Structure formats: structure tokens, C-alpha cells
Structure prediction request, 382 residues.
Amino acid sequence: MEEKQMEVVPGLAGIPAAESAVSYVDGEKGILEYRGISIETLAEKSTFLEVAYLLLFGKLPAESEYKKFKDDITYHTRLKVKILRMMELLPENGHPMEYLQSVVAAMGMYYPAKDVMNEETRYWSAVRLIAKMPTIVATCERLKSGDAPIQPNNNLSFAANFYYMLFEKVPDALTEKILDAMLILHADHTMNASTFSARVVGSTLADPYTVISSAIGTLSGPLHGGANEEVVHMLKEIGAKENARPSIERMIEKHEKIMGVGHRVYKTKDPRAKCLQSFAHKLFQNTTGKGKILEIAEEVEKVVNDKLASKKLYPNIDFYSGIVLQEIGIPTELFTPIFAMGRVAGWLSHWLEQLKTNKIYRPDQKYTGLHNQEYVPMSERR
Prediction:
């Protein structure tokens, strides 16, 4: 039987899967824009909720629009009692990403949103998901530590409230800014694996909670969202600035993956990494001087630039995000859930965009198996 000639592109690298106006990346020049606005400008001047509005609705909000959106999200930060009870019954050794995926999926039963073509259904689903994900993440961490959940403080900003629900204290201004910028920097990044997952599931007209749950599951993999945890582990294993060069050279020689280095799109340093490196310097300067882990990281970057620049491998967002989050006291296992808290704005924006001209995803395959095989009775099989 003759097979049709097909060229398989592993990972669909470079294959456009959809048209989108949400975000733009120029990997050669190191440019990332949300709706045409540079990520550097947004991280410096905007807030996460304003950026979420920009991504969802295609424009920066007017003052009255922003107030309504912010008030709607603030009002919906609390979790239902039955959801809290469900979380209490989940295994304490589960990863927070597993908690987050499970609870988001369950939300679909409490807030039915089957009519995804209804504009009001879409709006309130987006509001609830953005509002409640930080509460889920903070509650998960409290429960896993044996502590009671802390109710949201609606007098605080979105980022400050998350910090408050974790530690029952209000963050200082720099910590609040860093957390907010972290969410902005993670909010979208074109057709990455989790966004593609969201669009594929969304194309079936599944409800938004199922869509976001699938994206969270995709993000949980170490090759996507889990790398920031691995960077911190790697830097701790290196242990000292003077160990960086021999450690990295040994990893290169053994063809081991250097976590937080390299990107499928960027052929230069990730602009988000530059933003976070700047925040890291402010953070360590504000506390006890330039921290040891930052010194190790920047020495690793020097070695990587010496050894791998010819291959266009440079630090990505994961390289510095874990360092910054760790310094402001965030537990390592919450790094990826915080990534998800920001990226939900992008996932929802792509979901809304998908529904405008929806066509269910149904790619082809190149078959490499056998044909015309006989069925062998079990008694005759070897």
C-alpha cells in the first residue's frame, strides 16, 4: 500500500497554527509585544490587571473600564466552601500545579459555562479564573503547610493580595511591584505549548474551565513551566561563583541541558530575562547587597555566552524568575503556579480569539506502521 508523501516537522516548529493579534515575538531581535506595546514598557508602567484587560479586549482600558474590571475581579477572589473542602481532601504530597489543575477543572461544575458563544458567559468566566487562581495557589500552600487558608484582602492590589494570602502580611512596595511585573512578564508568549493546548481544547467548544485546566496541565511539564524551579536547583548545586565555569563546561561536555538557557523562539537574550535581572539587582541591593545566588547566575550567564553564543543559546525568562521569586520568600514549588496566574490572561485571550473564527483542530499524521497483518489466536502467539 503506497503512503502519501508527507514531511513531518517535529514539534510543529515554524508552522503557523493560527492567526493572532494577542502578542508578537521577534526572536532574532529579542522583542516581545502585547497588542503592539513592548513588554519592557508594560512591566515598568502598567499593572497586571490593566495588561490582562489589554490582552482580553485588545486595548488599554479607559479609567471607568479599568475600575469595573478591577472591581469585578476583586469581588470574585473568594472560593466556595465546597471547593475549599475539596482542596482539604487532596493529597498533601501533591504538587501545587496538580491542585491548581484539579480545582480549576472543578470550577466548571460550580460556574457552568457551556454556552461559550455567549459574551456574558465568556466575560464572567474570564473574571472568575483570573480572580480565583491566586486564591487557589495561596490556599494550596497554606493547606500543605498545615495552616488555615487566609481570606482575600480586597483593600490590597491584585499582587499584594496574593502575597497577603500566603503570608498574612502586606508586602513592601518593591516586592509588590516585582510580583505584579512577574505576572505581566508571564501573561502571554504567542503560540507556546500551553497556549496551543488551550486553543485546541477551545476549538472543540469545551467550557473555559476545561480549556484553562488543559493549559495548566501542559504548563506543568519541566520543558515548559517547570524550568524555573530547576534553575534554582541547578544554581544551588553549583554552590559558589568559582564553581560556575567548571560546572557548566562539564554539563556542556556531557551534552546535559542547562536549565533556563535557550529558547525555541529567541536567538538572543530573552527580553523578559533582562527585566527580571534588573529587578533582581534592585531586590538584592535593597536587602543585603548582591546575593550569592545572583552572583552564581551571572557567572553562569558569562560562561554560557562564552561557550554557547555561537549556537544562539542565551538565558530565557526562567533563568532569573526563580531567583527573584525565591528572594521575596516564595516557596520553590509555587514558581510555576505563579507563571500560570499570569499566563491565564493570555490563555483566555487566545481562547476568545479562537472562538471568533473557530475551526476544530484536526492535524494529519504520517503513518509509519504495518499493513495487512493477520490476527493470531492467543494460543498461537509467542
Remarks:
- Residues 119-144 form the longest helix (26 residues).
- The radius of gyration is 22 Å.
